[in-house]
């Protein structure tokens, strides 16, 4: 778990690694590259822990405001 404990953010899609990463809460950003209808799907419950992007081009605005974005998801 060294790499998940030392990372500044989680950037990915669907992976069990998210649960290792959340041991030490930090910003999570999820890429919905497969256009999943995730909001009602319990398999995507972890996507409530951070912003879900449909386009990689939206990533720069998230990264520019990491602290503010993370605050929006801290309680989750």
What does this molecule look like?
The protein has one domain (2-73). A 3-stranded parallel beta sheet has the order 1-2-3. The chain is globular. It is an alpha/beta fold and 76 residues long. Helix 2 (17-21) links the parallel strand 1 and strand 2 (27-31). It contains 4 helices and 3 strands. The protein has helices at residues 2-6, 17-21, 59-64, 66-73; strands at 9-12, 27-31, 52-53.
User: How are the strands ordered across the major sheet?
Assistant: 1-2-3
Question: What is the typical, i.e. mean, pLDDT?
Answer: 89
**Number of strand segments:** 3
Summed up, the helix count is 4
- SS-derived structural category: alpha/beta
Tally of individual domains: 1
What profile does the largest beta sheet have?
3 strands, parallel
Chart the SSEs and their pairings.
Elements: H1 2-6, E1 9-12, H2 17-21, E2 27-31, E3 52-53, H3 59-64, H4 66-73
Parallel strand pairs: 1-2, 2-3
In short:
The protein has 4 helices and 3 strands.
What are the main properties of this structure?
3-stranded parallel beta sheet; globular; alpha/beta; 76 residues
């Amino acid at each position: 778990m060294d790499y998940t404990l030392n990372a500044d953010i989680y950037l990915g899609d669907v992976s069990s690694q998210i649960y290792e990463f959340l041991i030490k809460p930090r910003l999570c950003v999820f890429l919905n590259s497969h256009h999943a209808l995730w909001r009602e799907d319990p398999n995507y419950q972890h996507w409530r822990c951070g912003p879900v992007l449909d386009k990689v081009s939206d990533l720069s605005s998230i990264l520019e405001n990491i602290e503010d974005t993370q605050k929006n998801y801290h309680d989750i």
